[in-house]
Design brief:
Elements (H helix, E strand, L loop, with lengths): L1 E5 L4 H12 L3 E5 L15 E2 L8 H11 L4 E4 L6 H6 L1 H22 L4 E7 L8 E3 L10 H19 L3 E7 L1 E3 L14 H10 L5 E3 L11 E2 L1 E3 H15 L4 E7 L5 E2 H12 L6 E3 L8 E4 L2 H7 L7 H19 L3
Helix pairs in contact: 1-7, 2-4, 4-5, 6-8, 8-10
């Protein structure tokens, strides 16, 4: 395949781009590098473009034609929940604007029939328990709402012309395949806990009185390498399919925040007594993916467990620290 990966210099995008290239696919990175890193994809051709800008339609359409692109994986988006609450209109402009302009570019050429959309479990809002794709979306912040709007636009597009598309709703992504691809997200749990441990702080846990085995929230953590592989499996599955499908990406297994903290302390060798902080508004006690649909449709299942996620994240952090100097 000849694949354009928008947001391909980001954390999940870069992992997916390397996996595509590793199996022999041509990969064109489309990224404005506002949050992504060129170092992650230094050996890939780069189309430096802001997809939220209307002028990107012609630029992307030309790139699709020039590079004979037949598939797109769309990661490019803003993803900070708190920021989306502070700047809702901008989040819609960025996230809905980017997928709108991408689809307009696809409509110009009509030679790129496959699209995989990076969505999120945030579309489910405050829903708790084991969540399947039939759960009614009810996002509670502009970030989740903007991703749901993207799904809806893809659904309408697939009904209007022969587009084969899938939206993948990730749960909690962690780990790394190599140091230069490590997660540096300031709002993601694993980097936050690692930073706290390394700096001598006590890891913070938001709420310790939930109806869960240890009182802390339970979430579904999936290795980024599994998530990247899911994109390739779904992209291949789209060949011969039409329309728009939605699939969860997770492990189907829950891990509590306290278990995650303990696992990171074990792998790092750094001990610190966790501190309990007030509950955050809207946090469900348990959020775990039902992953039967993607397994049934494509055969994909997560291969890595919590220990793999934690070990790979810590190893990537150590190697990154060695490369850049002491933490």
């Amino acid at each position: 395949m000849r694949v354009m990966v928008t947001g391909g210099a980001g954390y999940i995008g870069a992992h997916t781009s390397h996996l595509l290239a590793g199996r022999g696919d041509f990969v064109l990175i489309a990224d404005d590098l506002s949050t992504g890193s060129r170092a992650r994809v230094a050996d890939f051709p780069l189309l430096e473009v802001d997809l939220a800008e209307p002028a990107s339609v012609a630029v992307v359409a030309d790139a699709i034609r020039t590079h004979r692109i037949d598939s797109v994986i769309h990661f490019a988006a803003r993803k900070q929940v708190a920021e989306s609450v502070e700047r809702p209109a901008w989040y819609y402009q960025q996230n809905v604007g980017s997928i709108s302009n991408l689809i307009l570019a696809l409509e110009v050429e009509k030679t790129c029939p496959r699209l995989v959309f990076s969505s999120t479990a945030a579309v489910y809002g405050q829903a708790g328990g084991v969540i399947d794709e039939n759960r009614q979306p009810a996002p509670v912040n502009p970030y989740g709402a903007s991703k749901l709007a993207g799904e809806q636009l893809i659904d309408a597009t697939a009904a209007a012309w022969p587009l084969s598309a899938a939206s993948l709703r990730y749960f909690n992504v962690g780990g790394s395949s190599r140091a230069e691809l490590a997660d540096t997200g300031a709002s993601n749990l694993i980097p936050i806990i690692m930073d706290q441990l390394i700096s001598g702080q006590r890891p913070g846990i938001f709420g310790s009185d939930y109806d869960t085995p240890d009182g802390s929230c339970v979430r579904d953590y999936v290795h980024v390498a599994d998530v990247a592989e899911a994109h390739l499996v779904v992209l291949d599955w789209l060949v011969g399919h039409t329309g728009h499908d939605v699939m969860n990406v997770g492990t189907g297994t829950g891990t509590s925040v306290l278990e995650m903290v303990r696992a990171l302390m074990d792998i790092s060798g750094i001990r610190a007594e966790p501190q309990t902080l007030p509950r955050r508004p809207g946090d469900a006690a348990e959020v775990v993916a039902a992953v039967g649909r993607i397994a049934t449709e494509t055969g994909w299942q997560a291969r890595f467990a919590l220990d793999d996620i934690v070990a790979s994240a810590w190893d990537a952090r150590l190697h990154a620290s060695v490369a850049s100097g002491p933490v």
